[in-house]
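[job 4417] fold queue: 2 targets
>>> target A
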Amino acid sequence: MGYIEVILMGIVQGLSEFLPISSSAHLVFTSNICKLIKGTEPVYNAQEVFLDIVLHFGTLIAVLIFYRKEILQIIKALFNAFKNKDFSNPDAKLGIYLIAGTAITVLIAYPLHDVAEMLVFAPMAVGVLLTFTGFLLLFSEYISKNILDKKSTPDWKSSILIAVAQGLAALPGFSRSGLTISTGLLCGLDRNTSARYSFLLSIPIILGASMLYPFIKLDLKEVANFDFLLLATGALVSGIVGYFCIKYFIKFVSKFSLKIFGIYCLIVGFAMTALFYFVK
């Protein structure tokens, strides 16, 4: 794997992590298409699996920078709430929802971890899951359009359901932002609130995966042989692209429908399923 491929994957990750089109699916497609072009077999490679984590870490930094003020407000509100035993503050409630949502996500996502790793080398199956994401985006927009009294803040019901959706999105092809934003819309949240809550909920999960994965899954002898400059390049590219993607996606989602992303997921999902069916 060279710098051109890593930079390409960094761009793909930065664009697709926050757009509801499944970053993991696009990384799987990009990696497997590059292997097709080079004529190499899609075999397990520890550095490639770790690269996926590193690219997600780059986009984590992007969302931390973009929402730094909101994050500090939530932390401060939570500290005061526990100190004063008063959780009436909206930011404190949001913090509790995020903590509970993270716990639910882990309970659902952790058992799916081995399946998720196998899907990295099964692009046809990932295409099928991406197609499902497309249908869900279109369905949620249709339902949301008929909900007149939309909510601007999550509650316990919506936060739990969104967390379940995020847990299922551990599988490549199930877009994390696509499933969580769609679930928010189905729960009656407006698009801007759904997107904001989705991005905030991603922070502890991506942080946990980035910090814990190397210690749990990787052999230290393998890590010693990694090209860390290559990995850092991927993280930097995904972080920069991710930051601007968040900035402009939030503006887009507050004004326009997500149907275009649903249609995109359907087209790419069908195309990749067909491509890797015929070349398998």
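>>> target B
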Amino acid sequence: MRFLVDTHVHIYPFYRVAAALDSLVDNMPASTADVRIGCLTERQDCFVFDRLAERGIADADAAYDVQRQSPTLIRLVRRRDGAGLFLVAGQQIVTAENIEVLALNTASRVADGQSAPATVDAVLAAGGLPVAAWGFGKWVGGRGDVVRDLLARFRPDQFALGDTTMRPHGWATPFIMRAARRRGFHVLAGSDPLPFDGEERRPGSYHSVVESAGATPADLVNGLLTLPPESLHSGGSRGSPVSVAQRLLAHRRAAH
């Protein structure tokens, strides 16, 4: 069985939520035996998982049947064609060093502004899977040392690195990623949509593909960091240098 897992999904409150869900489905083309999973990584001001679970988003409610299966897992079925999708609760945290740590598979909230090691400890204490997400300039110099320190402090079954569409294809794989893989750490792929209109089409465009026989979606997510390396690879694609530059410019304009 194949699981297609986007591990860095933002659905901002101003998005057309049904369109973002459609992108998760359509950007991860699946056979009838495949399972699509989107791991939400919500900012402190975003609560889309809770609103979906409570049937509180009009356009999504009109387009999808929603069933909450656990405190951290929702199953959605698109009404027009029966396509299925699972959403996992989670958060994006900004550390004191301005590094993004994703907390996958937890409904708890961890405060921004703590040190990176304290943030990872807090995510683990909340039952989540901590992932340090790649970002422009955030893994170089002193902050690169912080990421290397995290890789020294935590085991591969406790911590992972994240790759995103914001790292243009054609760029060399960062040394930190290569070294981490050699030591058995996973690098998880995610789409990382940005907070401006039009990014609703991004979810699912870059994701991890996991081969795992007999696992349920909940089991798969719970055990994501303990999978054998050969069972996991990336699917979809990262952005081109031009598209990444355009997205960064649009993001900067939207922020001002």
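[job 4417] complete. Note on B: The chain has one domain: 2-255.
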